[in-house]
Write a structure and sequence with these properties.
- This protein folds into 3 domains: 6-130, Immunoglobulin-like, CATH 2.60.40.10; 152-265 and 400-480 and 522-693, Glycosidases (TIM Barrel, Alpha-Beta Barrel); 699-780, Immunoglobulin-like.
- It is built from 20 helices and 37 strands.
- Helices cover 22% and strands 19% of the residues.
- Mean pLDDT is 94; it is low at 1-5, 11-29 and 35-39.
- Helix 10 runs parallel beside helix 12 (438-447) and helix 17 packs parallel to helix 19.
């Protein structure tokens, strides 16, 4: 039998007969409903409604049932919540079903879909529920600072540490992957990460980058990149007594920052709560069971004449997928046409064929349509075509899409998130980001009191040259620049109610932009990362986009530190400011070029040298979890559900963390058990010292640099300096081998590695060392400079002697 919804029932009769045990309330009665003094619960609903005074029609209350007559009870305006907020209270109910109406006795007067809420206070704005007023934000209570002062430890939350076995759950495809019950894909959690924050702090890291936290839905979604609801934290990360907010608070209490991985380019293929609501997730069901936990919405069922969830699931999987994808993006919208395949958009791509004008399929153009079928990973088409079956590309040129994403992610900033790592940025036009995302989110952070909020993007360029395949618009550094041509902003449509024709015009502007700015010979340059001689100068951020970048050029060349250093020197002038680049050797996706699919296996000595460069050169160092012990070295990083996670580069790390660890400060700790052995491994101790050295020397954090032969003679050597109103910090660095530094300030210099002291009288200092990564860092301690007292960290280590 076809499922009968409340609204469907109203088609049969608008005035519901009041049955035994049901308390009936007329539309004229109070905005506070009492059910009885024996209950200790209550529900208060706040609804943002700008156009009319709303009514609330409700039924199916617990613990004692009650029901209003349709169209419901008039809500009361509550000016304490702000403009256009309305309130209704169920004083003694623990659960209630309801819809909002305009007070008329017709179905056309319905203002919302059906909702269910449980005990507590709830606010609804723009179709999204919050447990606090989304328009009222307390100032963020944390001493925010420049992210360049930090170093980053990157974890896949579900694979790091299990703090609550009660929330462990298999992915739907765990059976195919052969992940055992002892190691389900969803294993690590926020509680476990919080328990081991002291481990991360003991290594010396002060920022933790975590994979996406939003509610996900796919066969293998343990990583978080397949969103189902951007506005909601996935409950599989949380515990009954520990939430995402608790993790943020605990990190801040330890002086640490949370970097949230965010996705703007795509959703999963099971729809998204606002963009295309195809399923409701039943958290009371077995979440490892696809059909039990994912309840198709009436919208999905009715769109294809299906009478029940069972009928939907009885279809072939390909049919199910095709139905979902058609509703999301209108796969047949182009009527046989599809995008051109040249290196740049063609005139033929400018028409309305790429837009959906169908009232049923992708009617709001929230997604790019089926017009974009011919994907080339190396040119403009990668910004509009679907990049994977479970990554359905959003129309990021649509102002309504941008508004929703900015609203959702502003809420996470309001929770205290310190920075965003932005996924799949190369698959979004820079123009769209500069028009509707970068400034909006940075400004949201400023309004909340965080002037140091930072975003860095994944512009995935697996290439060992400065410009990606001769396309500026596909290159990492391109995204760090704002728009130099003001006409684009003048022409851009920012109206979230934009028509298909107006959204098409925005898309066409991104085509124009690509054509105009793709020439690598016409790109701007900057000296923001470079010293003027050996003098620091104030950087010019007037053309900064508001988004930094992961340094994919260095990443790809980190088969050796010398290779990474070389590509950085060649490319840095094309970044707006390369001192903000996030630098890593490997990630959850790739390692350097020669072994790109496997966790780094270039040798421990090479690892040590790479780290010595990363932690003293420009940029923000980042380590993927386990790199400190060469965890899973040489193992393929990601094979999807085709092998157990334990056999991949995303294996569970918790066994290395058993025992106790207490960090008394960054790089200072006591530990017992296996975690003590992990921290005592040679590479981990090397890393701990590097973190301590970098943390003590501002020049290594935020300094500009020079490797010019007029000032530096050495194979991998440089001078770094940072100066502001309170600090003047200068450091001379040689990573591997001896180096001579010339034309430097006279005075005392102390090597942070060994404690060696040299007094410079003729502007020249020679640093003597040998061995890969056995670096020297001479800090100027002359009058007027911020120096150091002596050696920093342990001495006599395996790779630093």
């Amino acid at each position: 039998m076809k499922k009968l919804t409340r609204i469907s029932a109203l088609l049969l009769v608008l005035i519901i007969a009041i049955g035994v045990g049901i308390v009936g309330i007329s539309a004229a009665e109070s905005d506070i409903v009492e059910v009885g003094a024996d209950s200790e619960v209550g529900i208060t609903i706040y609804y943002k409604c700008e156009d009319t005074t709303p009514y609330i029609y409700y039924w199916n209350a617990l613990p004692k049932n009650l029901e209003s007559a349709y169209p419901g009870v008039k809500m009361t305006k509550d000016t304490t919540q702000g403009e256009d907020w309305y309130k209704f209270t169920f004083k003694d109910s623990s659960k209630i079903n309801f819809i909002f109406t305009d007070g008329t006795d017709t179905l056309e007067g319905q203002l919302s879909k059906e909702f269910t809420r449980t005990s507590g206070e709830w606010w609804l704005k723009n179709g999204r529920w919050k447990d606090k007023n989304p328009e009222i934000h307390d100032d963020l209570d944390f001493d925010y600072s420049d992210l360049r002062e930090d170093t980053i430890y990157f974890v896949i939350t579900t694979r790091f540490y299990d703090g609550d076995k009660g929330n462990n759950v298999h992915c739907w495809d765990d059976g195919k992957a052969k992940n055992p019950d002892s190691d389900p894909a969803w294993r690590g959690d926020f509680k476990g990460l919080a328990e081991k924050l002291d481990y991360i702090k003991a290594l010396g890291f002060s920022a933790v980058w975590i994979t996406p936290v939003v509610e996900n839905a796919s066969g293998y979604d343990y990583h978080g990149y397949h969103a189902m609801d951007f506005s909601k934290v996935d409950s599989r990360y949380e515990s009954d007594d520990y939430t995402y907010q608790d993790l943020i608070n605990d990190a801040h209490d330890k002086g640490m920052k949370i970097i949230q991985d965010v996705v703007w380019q795509h959703t999963g293929n099971f729809g998204e709560a606002f963009f295309c609501n195809l399923f409701e997730k039943d958290y009371s069901a077995d979440l490892s069971d696809l059909e039990a936990s994912m309840v198709p919405t009436d919208y999905l069922l009715n769109s294809f004449g299906l009478s029940s969830p069972e009928e939907y699931w009885s279809q072939k999987p390909q049919t199910q997928y095709d139905q979902r994808l058609n509703l999301m993006k209108n796969t047949a919208s182009a009527a046989g046409a599809n995008n051109t395949t040249g290196g740049h958009p063609d005139d033929a791509d400018y028409g309305m064929e790429k837009m959906s004008t169908d009232a049923k399929y992708n009617s709001h153009n929230y997604y790019h349509t089926g017009y974009f079928q011919s994907l080339n990973w190396d040119d403009w088409t990668c910004k509009y075509c679907q990049i994977a079956g479970d990554c359905v590309d959003l129309n990021t040129e649509n102002p309504a899409v941008a508004k929703y994403l900015v609203d959702c992610y502003s809420d996470y900033i309001a929770m205290g998130v310190d920075a965003f790592r932005v996924d799949t940025v190369r698959h979004i036009s820079r123009l769209s980001l500069n028009m509707m995302y970068n400034d909006q989110l940075n400004n949201a952070a400023k309004e909340l009191g965080n002037d140091y909020f930072y975003m860095f993007g994944e512009i995935c360029c697996r290439y060992s040259q400065t410009w990606y395949r001769d396309h500026a618009c596909e290159s990492v550094q391109f995204y760090t620049w704002d728009e130099s041509d003001p006409s684009y902003k003048q022409k851009w449509n920012f109206d979230e109610d934009a028509t298909a024709e107006e959204i098409n015009e925005n898309m066409n502007l991104t085509f124009d932009h690509y054509r105009q700015f793709d020439d690598v010979s016409k790109q701007p340059t900057s000296d923001n990362a470079f010293l003027n001689g050996v003098t620091y100068h104030t950087p010019d951020y007037s053309q900064n986009s508001g988004m930094g970048a992961i340094d994919f050029q260095m990443h790809w060349c980190f088969d050796s530190a010398d290779g990474a250093f070389g590509i950085a020197k060649a490319s840095d002038k094309y970044f707006n400011d390369a001192t903000w680049n996030v630098v890593y050797v490997e990630s959850h996706d790739y390692a350097p070029d020669r072994g790109q699919g496997n966790r780094f296996a270039g040798g421990t000595q090479t690892w040590a040298e790479n780290m010595s460069l990363m932690f003293t050169f420009r940029g923000i160092p980042c380590l993927y979890y386990g790199g400190e012990v060469e965890f899973q070295k040489g193992v393929q990083i990601d094979v999807g559900p085709n092998a157990p996670l334990a056999e991949t580069g995303r294996a569970y790390f918790g066994d290395y963390l058993e025992g106790t660890v207490t960090a008394t400060d960054f790089s200072e700790y006591t530990a017992t058990g296996e975690v003590a052995n992990t921290l005592a491994s040679p590479l981990a101790k090397h890393l701990t010292k590097l973190n301590a050295v970098r943390r003590a020397i501002p020049a290594l954090q935020k300094g500009q640099y020079t490797a010019d032969s007029k000032y530096v003679q050495g194979s991998m050597a440089y001078i770094r300096r940072f100066t502001d109103a309170d600090v003047d910090s200068l450091a001379l660095v040689t990573v591997s081998g001896s180096a001579t530094f010339k034309n430097i300030p006279n005075g005392k210099y102390i090597d942070a590695i060994t404690g060696d002291i040299q007094t410079v009288t003729n502007g020249t200092l020679t640093a003597n060392c040998s061995g890969k990564g056995n670096l020297r860092v001479y800090v100027c301690c002359a009058s007027g400079f911020d120096g150091i007292d002596g050696v920093i960290g342990e001495t006599g280590l395996t790779y630093i002697k």
